[in-house]
């Protein structure tokens, strides 16, 4: 019987280690939930790195525990983590794909490890893959994997989905190993991206860098038709709707009402990353207070930055710059009873996030570049009274779907400041009209829908190829 194999850099599990004891907990991210309907069934399986270096003596024991959860580990050494993950993935692909190529460091050793670790993933996949199986690979850490598997198992169906943007050719061409990366991707039968622009950029790069023929969204690679298409990812909408009525969320919502009363809350939630536009957002909020001083003591910016990669110099510098700017804005505008920015550098339980999504009058999401951006959709899904305003960057994939947000260019500080003013003055009727439209989109194109669509299309593409071969 054929099965489905999901492959991603990280397994959907959190492993913590204390005094040599390892504790495993399933992670609750949207992707893990969405793909749960697949990998938990029958012989299906999810392959990936457990997220930390596991002492060799404990590897068999953890493997056993993971097997019970239909998960299969790819163990990585510290050197592999440093060079394949921190290095090639996060210091080359991440910045270039987010249009921040000045941050890229094209080290040969990064490439060597990227190749080595992708081969390691291939070996683990091949231990379990059989003819007729469907393999779904996720994201930029594994660009070589489709090609590596195809070389050894020509008949399996391979899908690949990219969660981050695919940059324009002028950016992509900068990467020394650009052709090898594209050849790796073309091992898939179906390549999925969040937006039309991403798939278009991919197709453009392929036709300009490789000797292949392409027509519309079909690339002919070694007599195999490879299809690139758009699958905008959704969220677990039902979960956020349910959270809005959860007793713990309602309790926290009451506390927020007590603490902030009639003060308008502008909410911003991101991982620490230079692609998220956090400094520009702070500058815009400062300009807003300067342009519209009548809002002093009437508005706060509630800003959560979730720690990430902060041992890397650029991230540490960004964190310091955010600390300084938030501090200086608070020092400049604060009064005895009020300070304009509540800034947190840590993560919170999802119940707290849900309470904030419910409470905040404005969701402010202004990344410089973002594959999709799920926070914007979670804010919308949580607005059960159909009020509130979303301000959204045109550089986030989500802006293609959430067209009733106030759409801004995140580099235009003045435009963000004016959008804040417009949002605060938007009549309730207008808020409701916009929010209802967006809620319909988020509810319909949810994560389960996305998974179903991608899997169905992959089956279709595979059948199409087989019928072409039979002719
Ligand atoms: C990549 C792409 C694309 C945040 N803070 C806390 C917390 N979160 C959760 C949010 C949301 C998720 O993390 C962040 O998702 P994003 O989509 O905004 O961003 P990335 O992590 O960069 O994800 C992105 C995505 O892949 C999917 O394809 O949209 O463009 O970069 O779900 O709720 N969760 C909890 N506490 C926090 O403090 N529990």
Automatic annotation (TrEMBL):
Q: Which domain of life is it from?
A: Bacteria
Enumerate the GO terms in the molecular function aspect.
alpha,alpha-trehalose-phosphate synthase (UDP-forming) activity; trehalose-phosphatase activity
Q: Name one GO cellular component term.
A: cytosol
Give the range the annotation lists for the signal sequence: none
Q: Which GO BP annotation is one of this protein's?
A: trehalose biosynthetic process
Regarding protein family, the annotation reads: In the C-terminal section; belongs to the trehalose phosphatase family.
> What is the name attached to this protein's record?
Bifunctional alpha,alpha-trehalose-phosphate synthase (UDP-forming)/trehalose-phosphatase
Which organism's genome codes for this protein?
Answer: Chitinophaga tropicalis
Phylogenetic classification of the source organism:
Bacteria, Pseudomonadati, Bacteroidota, Chitinophagia, Chitinophagales
Parent-record interval covered = 1 to 471 of 723
């Amino acid at each position: 019987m054929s099965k489905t194999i999901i492959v991603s850099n990280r397994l959907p599990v959190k492993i913590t280690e204390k005094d040599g004891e390892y504790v495993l907990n399933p992670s609750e991210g949207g992707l893990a939930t969405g793909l749960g309907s697949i990998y938990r069934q029958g012989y299906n399986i999810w392959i990936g790195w457990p997220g930390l270096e596991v002492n060799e003596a404990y590897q068999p024991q953890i493997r056993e525990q993971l097997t019970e959860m239909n998960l299969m580990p790819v163990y990585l050494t510290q050197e592999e983590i440093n060079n394949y993950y921190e290095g090639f993935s996060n210091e080359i692909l991440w910045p270039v794909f987010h249009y921040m190529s000045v941050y890229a460091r094209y080290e040969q050793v990064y490439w060597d490890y990227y190749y080595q670790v992708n081969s390691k993933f291939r070996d683990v996949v091949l231990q379990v893959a059989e003819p007729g199986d469907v393999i779904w690979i996720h994201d930029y850490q594994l660009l070589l994997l489709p090609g590596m598997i195809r070389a050894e198992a020509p008949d399996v169906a391979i899908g690949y989905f990219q969660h981050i943007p695919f940059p324009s050719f002028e950016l992509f061409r900068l990467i020394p190993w650009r052709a090898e990366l594209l050849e790796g991707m073309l091992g898939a039968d179906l390549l999925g991206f969040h937006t039309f622009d991403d798939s278009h950029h991919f197709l453009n790069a392929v036709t300009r860098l490789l000797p292949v023929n392409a027509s519309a969204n079909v690339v002919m690679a070694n007599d195999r038709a490879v299809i690139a298409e758009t699958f905008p990812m959704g969220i677990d909408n039902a979960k956020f709707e349910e959270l809005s009525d959860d007793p713990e969320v309602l309790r926290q919502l009451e506390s927020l009402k007590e603490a902030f009363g009639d003060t308008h809350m502008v909410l911003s939630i991101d991982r620490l990353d230079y692609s998220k536009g956090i400094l520009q957002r702070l500058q815009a909020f400062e300009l807003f207070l300067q342009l519209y001083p009548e809002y002093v003591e009437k508005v706060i910016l509630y800003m959560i930055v979730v720690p990430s990669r902060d041992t890397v110099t650029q991230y540490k510098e960004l964190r310091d710059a955010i600390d300084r700017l938030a501090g200086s804005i608070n020092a400049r505008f604060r009064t005895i009873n009020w300070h304009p920015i509540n800034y947190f550098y840590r993560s919170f339980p999802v119940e707290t996030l849900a309470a904030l999504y419910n409470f905040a009058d404005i969701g402010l999401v202004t990344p410089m570049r973002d594959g999709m951006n799920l926070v914007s959709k979670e804010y919308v899904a949580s607005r059960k009274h159909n009020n509130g305003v979303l301000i959204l960057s045109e550089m986030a994939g989500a802006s293609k779907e959430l067209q009733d947000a106030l759409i801004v260019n995140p580099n235009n500080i003045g435009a963000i400041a004016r959008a804040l003013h417009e949002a605060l003055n938007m009549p309730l009727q207008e808020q409701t009209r916009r929010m209802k439209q967006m809620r319909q989109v988020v509810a319909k194109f949810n994560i389960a829908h996305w998974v179903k669509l991608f899997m169905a299309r992959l089956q279709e593409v595979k059948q199409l190829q087989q019928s072409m071969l039979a002719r």
